[in-house]
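Hi Q.,

Before the meeting this afternoon, I wanted you to have the adenosine-5'-diphosphate prediction in hand. No need to reply - just skim if you have a minute. The sequence and ligand are here:
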Amino acid sequence: MLGLMMDTPLLISSLIQHADDYHGDTEITTRTVEGPLHRYTYREAHQRARQLANALDSIGIQRGDRCATLAWNTYRHFEIYFAVSGVGAICHTVNPRLFAPQIAYIINHAEDACLFVDLSFMSLVEELAEQLATVKSIVILTDHANMPPTPLANVICYEDLVHSHSDVLDWPQFDEHTGSSLCYTSGTTGNPKGVLYSHRSTLLHTYAASLPDNFGLAARDTVMPVVPMYHANAWGIPYAAPMVGCKLVLPGPVTDGAGLHHLIESEQVTFSAAVPTVWLGLLQYFDACGQTSSSLERVVIGGAAPPRSMIEAFAERFGIQVLHAWGMTETSPIGTINRPRHGMSEETPAQRYQREAKQGRPLFGVRMRIIDDQNQPLPHDGESFGNLTVQGPWVCRGYFNEPHSDAHSEAGWFSTGDVATIDPQGYAQITDRSKDVIKSGGEWISSIALENIAIGHPEVVEAAAIGVTHPKWAERPLLIVVRRDQSTLTRDEMLHYFEGQVVKWWIPDDVVFVDQLPHTATGKLFKLKLRETYRNHLLTIGVAP
Ligand code: ADP
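Predicted structure with the ligand bound:
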């Protein structure tokens, strides 16, 4: 027997409609690419999203067409999110920090029909335009007065496009399983792969992410996503904000400590989200200028593990709570978040920071397990570490326009490529990417654990641990270190520092000092490149078998 409840589809347009209906005068503030602050309300955002939706028809965008963006976090990007998905087309956010050939690959692979581009990325688009076979129109995200001279054909001014269309529109209703937005993984491990979110997956993720023990968002909050809108939909915040009706602050191209601090104070931001590098910049700014924040209550840190010292600094020195989250483009992205369980109120600060350095527990909706190389589940004892696999309604079940995916099992699990432990309380801790784990004589060594220890040395700025070829053990750890200026730290002193912190056989076989380490477009250590460079290091220095 079926239930007798309405079959209202979960559509992204309902979010902006709701914000207009019940939070219509709540503000969205943007640091624009042109410079000044821009302020308007959800009501105006909704009106312009409807105008843009009508305009899309005029440039030939049909349901299912992909519309690419190369854009910062701004109100115009926000309008595109809702207009494009709202009419049943796909909002394809492209990461402008990728290497240019990868951007061309992604746009061609997605067969994008149009491209919305911020002024900052004009020269990039001019360089790539000839290779973009499917892009019929290029919409420049500015007004008439700021339109740049360009040799590009088919260029349209965004403000002219919006203003020349009516705002009369009832959002179309369609199947909630329809694709809504597309985001490619940054390709740290091979060619970029497209994750195609649906309206349903987006709304379920938005509900879940907003819950009190997750982001805990409320209408009284002022929320500033620093995480880019081209990185897994800014972790869902552009959808969660209109759902809860909070004030939204979009920092545009500004992500440095001073610029963020200025916006946080002027807008009285209470909640923000970014990767550890951004927060390091803010903390350094606080230190250098003797500043703090009068409003910031919670910050989400994800994308990479924050060091415990960062969690402690936020809490102890500035009274700001860190919400440590883990996720991937493939998981919409929030998979786990670190919040205390019932009965944990007696934790000492030290116990709390130790717990918060872990990636956390799954949100309701996400199931997770760890398995060994034979697909056998491993115990959740906080010790055993294995391949982390997940499933749930906002986890992707395949990649866009790829007939096959090694990461998806027939039993319905997605293999994250991360290696983790899960403790008896359900807190997962990422110990490595599966490609980065060092397999020494069949035993696994966590490269992240070695890096964390190395970074704990006062003379080390950054460190990477990688597995390199060894004649006897197949692989052994090599540590690559960037020292502080003027440091005289030696190889032996560095290795000695590991003693007592890990079992003996985890201690790296050698140390290489370098001026800088390579990073990917998303700011992660580019270990693939390091492995290529140093693969034969131990063989060339002549290790004893
Ligand atoms: P990729 O880097 O593979 O292109 P994403 O940008 O989606 O993909 O990043 C996802 C990866 O980032 C995760 O698989 C994990 O390795 C890493 N990651 C995300 N959050 C955390 C975290 N809190 N701690 C450690 N690693 C994290």
